[in-house]
Amino acid sequence: MKKSTVVSKISQPYAEALFELAQANSLVESISQDLNFLSNSFENDTQLNQFLTSPTFQGIEKKEAIKKLFSDKIHPFTINFISLLLDKNRISNFYEIAEKFQELVLKTNKVLLAKVITAVEFSTEQKKMVGDMIAKQTGASKVDLEFQINSRLIGGFVIYIGSQVIDASLISQIFRIRNSFNI
């Protein structure tokens, strides 16, 4: 299974179906944890990953292996879902499906993911101010922030919220001024 940065049209319906099933059975949190656990397991166990994606082994063998390895660790709904992916030859889409499922969980809980790139390390107070500002602007009940440092920004910050970019960096202001003077 490969992690893909492009979410395919195939993965979205699977994630939505699993999410609806999880909601209907009050298992969203449990299945969310299961998907995280499986993602880590598949990522850290290259032999398991190769086994699951290998055309050499039959689906029944793969499903039995999943049951044997994980039946005492994850919910039966999650086991059945992985079996479905194996039956439909969609196990290679697992990471995308898990990612889309987690996005649906966050969206339902009005949690917003934002990536903040700064020129220097922000203090805890500054990080809180940025989170509060984003929550106020977007109406999110909670904002999960990921901070990165990039000294090439010189000063300020760049915020990524989904496909939206808020660029308040000094380097971009310098480029705008330079372009306005056609330098």
From TrEMBL:
Taxonomic superkingdom: Eukaryota
GO cellular component: membrane
Gene3D superfamilies named among the record's database cross-references: N-terminal domain of the delta subunit of the F1F0-ATP synthase
Pfam families reported for this sequence: OSCP
InterPro entries per the UniProt record, alphabetical: ATP_synth_OSCP/delta_N_sf, ATPase_OSCP/dsu
Regions annotated as coiled coil: none
Swiss-Prot/TrEMBL keywords: ATP synthesis, Hydrogen ion transport, Ion transport, Membrane, Plastid, Transport
Subcellular localization: Membrane
Molecular-function GO terms, alphabetical: proton-transporting ATP synthase activity, rotational mechanism
Family note: Belongs to the ATPase delta chain family.
Matches recorded under NCBIfam families: ATP_synt_delta
Name of protein: ATP synthase CF1 delta subunit
Species annotation: Glaucocystis incrassata
Gene (UniProt): atpD
